[in-house]
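Appendix B, Record 12. Input sequence as logged:
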Amino acid sequence: MRLAMCSLHVTDPGAAHRFYTDVLGFETMIAMPEHHVFVITGRGQDVGLLLEPSDHPVASAYRAGLYAERIPALVVGTDDLDADIERLSAQGIGFVSERFTDASGSSINLDDTVGNIIQLHEAAR
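Logged structural output:
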């Protein structure tokens, strides 16, 4: 078995699609704006991330709870964390943590503008 699709609850799927593609650099796998359906993927990957409307009370409470506690809802890998921090800072992206390092590598958390904290992570080498 392999992962085919995961979902991330967002406050606005269209805005999320723009953020994840235009700002973070993901690619569109499926876009049906008339149905508020957007699926993105990383370059060269076949796993989709559904940017799902957070309109169900359980989903909304879960998303809001994680956000309030500043717990990342998603971890995104990068090969050059320093370059991504510089690029995103220049675009005015709001980081909600300082860069931190542990045995797994280095990370920083950011606000994705659609209700989630996202962690950028560069694996230790």
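The beta strands are 5-10, 27-32, 37-41, 48-53, 74-77, 100-102, 105-111, 117-123.
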